[in-house]
Structures are given as C-alpha cells and as structure tokens.
Task: inverse folding
C-alpha cells in the first residue's frame, strides 16, 4: 500500500462506509511501516469534532505536525522492530495465545482463502499482523476483493479476527513507553475499534 490516507472506493459505497474504510486504511498504513513526510503532512491537516473519534483524530493531527520522518521511523522501530523484537508484537496469534504463528493465523488463512483474498508477495509479515488486518477490512468494505462486502461479511471478518484483541492492542500502543506520535494513533485505533464493535453488535 502507498503511504496515503486516501483510497479509491467504488461509487456504490456509502459515505459512511467510505469514511470507515479510510480509517481502517490509515491504521493499516501506519502500522505496516513508518509514515512518510507526505503522510505526516496530510495527517497534520486532519479535522475532528467533539466525539471521542473526532478528538482522537485531532490528537493525531497535533502530533503529526510535531513529528519528523526520522523520529517517526525510530519510534516505529522501537515499538515494532527493535533488536530482536519491538516493545509490542502486533499479531492476533500472540495476543490470543501468547505465541506467534498459532491457530488464529491458520484460521485467518483459511478465511482469506475462502474469500479469495491472496497475501501480497511483497509482505513478509504473517497475515495476522494488525496492519494487514486493517487493510483487509478496508478492502472488504470497499469491495476490493471478490468476496461479499455487505455488513454480514464485514461483521464475520471483524468478529473472527479483530474483535477479540484489536482494542486491547491499541490500548497497549496508546500506553507504550516508546509511543509519542503513535500514542494518539493508539487512541484513534482503540476508539474506532470500540465504535465498530458496538455497531456490529446491533447487526
């Protein structure tokens, strides 16, 4: 994926779903690699409102304006790469079992195969990386993949692969010792995942 908060959505996608997909896409980009200078500039112009989600967006904008690409890359590496491993391990398997490459990853791969979603050849991370899952959710919402993109399909993927751990991961990111720019990213992810969970719960 390119370092951009914008994605192309089919005309049949509602404005609400377009906005949801863009947040998923943004989280996916930020968690898959350090932000470019162009993305930081774009994030600095984010607008918000008085809702928890709007406040989180404003906080991301404030920190993006103060952050340069070098510091963002160093922070990203401290959080997710490190010497041997970073401060956080952003994988479903780790959060649900305490180990990498466990049953949650196998279940995800089975689901992706059934949906006709293929792993990108340039991605070395296991598919249960939180950044990859956010990008997949964005693609399901916008109809990028051959599988159904209706709400039941979205809910099925969210419930199986994000609902049980994503909010906890983003809380950990929000509170991580190395997180400065990524602290507000964690807040945005936590609030957004809670909104998504509540919305899917009434479907």
Result:
């Amino acid at each position: 994926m390119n370092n951009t908060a914008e994605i192309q959505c089919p005309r049949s996608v509602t404005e609400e779903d377009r906005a949801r997909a863009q947040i998923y896409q943004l989280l996916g980009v930020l968690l898959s690699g350090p932000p470019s200078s162009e993305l930081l500039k774009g994030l600095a112009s984010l607008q918000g409102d008085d809702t928890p989600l709007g406040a989180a967006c404003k906080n991301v904008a404030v920190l993006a304006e103060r952050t340069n690409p070098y510091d963002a890359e160093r922070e990203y590496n401290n959080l997710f790469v490190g010497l041997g491993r970073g401060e956080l391990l952003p994988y479903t398997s780790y959060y649900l079992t305490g180990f990498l490459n466990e049953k949650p990853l196998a279940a995800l791969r089975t689901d992706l195969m059934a949906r006709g979603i293929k792993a990108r050849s340039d991605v070395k991370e296991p598919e249960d990386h939180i950044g990859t899952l956010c990008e997949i959710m964005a693609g399901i919402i916008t109809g990028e993949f051959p599988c159904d993109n209706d709400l039941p399909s979205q809910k099925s993927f969210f419930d199986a692969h994000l609902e049980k751990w994503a909010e906890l991961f983003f809380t950990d990111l929000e509170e991580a010792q190395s997180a400065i720019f990524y602290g507000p990213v964690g807040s945005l992810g936590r609030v957004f995942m809670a909104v998504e969970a509540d919305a899917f719960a009434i479907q």
